[in-house]
Amino acid sequence: MSDHTSEPENNDNAGVKIPPPLCFLFFLVVGILVSSDWIDGTLGPLSRLVIGGIPACIGLFFIISEAKSHKKSGSNVEPWKPTTTIIDTGLYAYSRNPIYVGMTITYVSISFAAFSLGALLLLPFCLLIIHYFVIAKEEAYLEDKFGDEYLSYKSRVRRWF
């Protein structure tokens, strides 16, 4: 008889503890608070808002369309939940991480629109956290769970673009 009285842990996930959208949002907000026209309540020139807004919309499109791909495939988009299949269609045919690409595009675009050098300077730190504490864990989990199927996908498709 087992000495364990608690429920068994579900280990079918990548073990990611940091929600990627919150990581990007944290660094973006800190960067904007450090330096931005928006701190003073000034939005800046309309041209900068438009030039920053258009790619931000493209980034959001990446995020939303690929999150829908997860739902359609019956898999989870959240990296702390089980992955049920390897998605290799849509933007996943070109990037193993199109949602993170979308988040990066959106981050850079908002940084530009906000005229925030601080946010741009913090982006590499954000991406390092995403790389080591999210992507590395996800890839190890997917290799372990799907084996050759994931390794084949990984050999065909780049991490970013």
Explained architecture:
The chain has one domain (about 40-155). It is built from five helices and no strands. It has helices spanning about 20-35, 45-75, 100-115, 115-145, 150-155. The termini are far apart.
What are the SSEs and their pairings?
Elements: H1 20-34, H2 46-73, H3 98-113, H4 117-146, H5 148-156
Helix pairs in contact: 1-3, 1-4, 2-3, 3-4, 4-5
Short description:
This protein is mostly helical. The chain has helices at 20-34, 46-73, 98-113, 117-146, 148-156.
Keywords:
61% helix; disordered N terminus; 161 residues; mainly alpha
Helix content: 55-70%
| Share of β-strand residues | under 5%
The domain count comes to 1
Estimate the mean pLDDT confidence. Answer: 91
Order of helices and strands: HHHHH
- Poorly predicted regions are 1-9
